[in-house]
Amino acid sequence: MSSxxxxxxxxxxxxxxxxxxxxxxxxxxxxxxxxxxxxxxMAYGFLARTLTGPSLSPIxxxxxxxxxxxxxxxxxxxxxxxxxxxxxxxxxxSIAALITFYLGGSIEITRYLIGVxxxxxxxxxxxxxxxxxxxxxxxxKFGIIPESVCEECMIDYTEPDDNSDTV
Length: 167
Description:
By secondary structure, this protein is mainly α. Helix content is 64%, strand content 2%. It has six helices and two strands; from the N terminus they run E-H-H-H-E-H-H-H. Strands 1-2 form a two-stranded antiparallel sheet. Helix 1 runs antiparallel to helix 2 and helix 4 crosses helix 6 (131-141).
């Protein structure tokens, strides 16, 4: 049971990019249809992936159990905590979109929120750059997120010493 409710570390980079692709598809579907069930499905997916990784996420299951093996996509392990942080940002955007949809009285704000979410998911899916992971690294650098959360995430921002004794 604990493995079902735990976030994986490491995470397959290619699986994360495929999940992001599906988020792009859902964001586009909402922009075209304005369908509330797309928003609910997106919010549930981000909640499930934030809490458990792919375990309780329908998209995560399709990607990890079907697409990755079917397409013979290799495993490219990356640190899990930054990906979890990125999923939580997506959760925040999708919950904000639900709130504005139901309580805001204006679908335009909802469309902007989903548009921003879709933009950042596109950057992850097509360019392989996880903006949430980048923010995570800066929050670690500034000490807002403690090093103990992700020791393998520590990035050395110093320049290499030119006078080193390495050959």
